[in-house]
Amino acid sequence: MALTKEDLQAIQNLLGDLENRIDEKFEAHRDWVGFELDKRIKPLEEKISHLPTKAEYFDSMDALMKEIQEYRMERVTLGSQVKRLEKRVETVEAKVGIKNS
Length: 101
Description:
The protein is mainly α. It has two helices and no strands. It starts with a helix and ends in a 5-residue tail after the last helix.
């Protein structure tokens, strides 16, 4: 059983009526929906407002990475200075005749 042009037209009319009824229902509830969305979004916006912006976050990460890099370089420098001082102390102890403990 094939659909006729009249059947297709009737289906289109039904769909059009359904679409109009949905639009009417939505319009009737638009203010309530907007109020509910605002009510749920405002607390989220307040919480998000305390987070740093993308630029602030990356600026703080850049500063932190710079500090870490400086710390690592300082640690290497101090390590080599300690090795030199240990060698000097051992040399002095050997010349003076002090035994290592």
